[in-house]
Amino acid sequence: MGKNRLEAFSDGVIAIIITIMVLELKVPHGADWDTLVPLAPVFLSYVLSFIYTGIYWNNHHHLLHAAAKVNGPVLWANLHLLFWLSLIPFVTGWMGENHFGALPVAMYGVVLAMSALAYLLLEHLLVRLHGNESALAQAVGRERKEWLSIALYALGIGLSFVHPMLGVGLYAAVAVLWFLPDRRIEAKLAH
Length: 191
Fold this sequence. Notes:
By secondary structure, this protein is mainly alpha-helical. The chain has one domain (4-190). Helices cover 77% and strands 0% of the residues. Keywords: Ion channel, Ion transport, Membrane, Potassium, Potassium channel, Potassium transport, Transmembrane, Transmembrane helix, Transport. The chain crosses the membrane at residues 6-23, 35-55, 75-95, 102-122, 150-180.
């Protein structure tokens, strides 16, 4: 089956996720810089989550651009990914409102790790559908960066209970690692 509905649906869900996150930003009561200080954790968690959502949208776009078709398992794997991504506004708000408390930061990492695993599953199912010799399979290649990210999320979850900002720092490091879209797919499709 074609992939257009899957792409359109995913784009819509991701747009809603971003909308929900921005609606959680409350307007301060006051007109001086001091009124913004208490909002800093909320704003910083929003920025990190906006970047993550953008990373997923960007890489999802590249992945589906390389795919020629989808099937039932791919549709379910995509819903699985969207489920975990849809929890980002919740953990973002929880983390920001509680000034990066240990449990909210750890749960933020759990949602990020599960999103990464869900994306990896979607990638595997698309490769299986298209075959190991397909351009998609060759473009995706080894998943070192994916597994490194998951390991860093796990470390960040654990370190969140030592000092929450260590977890946030690792989550930010993974975002930097993925900030640019996955160039393997672009490079392979260009040839």
